[in-house]
């Protein structure tokens, strides 16, 4: 699945005073995170952006469309990472590690959008669709974990679905404390996650030597 921008493949139109669809969705995602989606009105967005509601409607049809564009941007990044991992050559354990690293990179690059995705609760049609796509992604990770266990590369005494939840629970927790202007880069965060996760998952004889 190709990564798309929040434009969702549509031509970008620049409105007043200089917002295009992508920057509009980015601001909306931050406001939704701060106030909650249900607690945010189009009036709130209008005040935050400093433009009229009609200027917002120049780009999108509704608050629901803003939410969909935002969560789809997060999900498209995750599914692009999954597609990369699926087409890689090599053992499932290595493809799983690639997916974890790529997912950390998506989270860092699209932090407000991933944060918003993790907060949806299924109260609207858009939220339910987002949750369904998240379940598809979780199922993909579980299958990769199961294959790595079948290959004999990770311990078989932990349920693959639980491994998937624990791995991405650790990744998703970054949204609670990661500071984009902090000292840790995406690569450093991915190294830390993979060291903690995979040193515990790999069978003893399969661990790489210490550097």
Order of helices and strands: HHHHHHHHHH
Computed over alpha carbons, the radius of gyration is 19 Å
The total beta strand count reads 0
Strand content: under 5%
Mean pLDDT: 87
Any low-confidence stretches, pLDDT <50, length ≥5?
Answer: 9-16
How many helices? The count is 10
Largest sheet: none
Based on CA inertia axes, which overall geometry fits?
Answer: elongated
Describe the structure.
The chain has 211 residues and is mainly alpha-helical. 66% of the residues lie in helices and 0% in strands. Helix 1 packs across helix 4 and helix 7 crosses helix 8 (160-172). The longest helix is centred in the middle third of the chain and has 26 residues, at 125-150. The protein starts with 20 loop residues before the first helix and ends in a 10-residue tail after the last helix. Residues 9-16 have low confidence and may be disordered.
Keywords:
211 residues; mainly alpha; 10 helices; elongated
Task: Describe the structure in brief.
The protein has 211 residues and is an all-alpha fold.
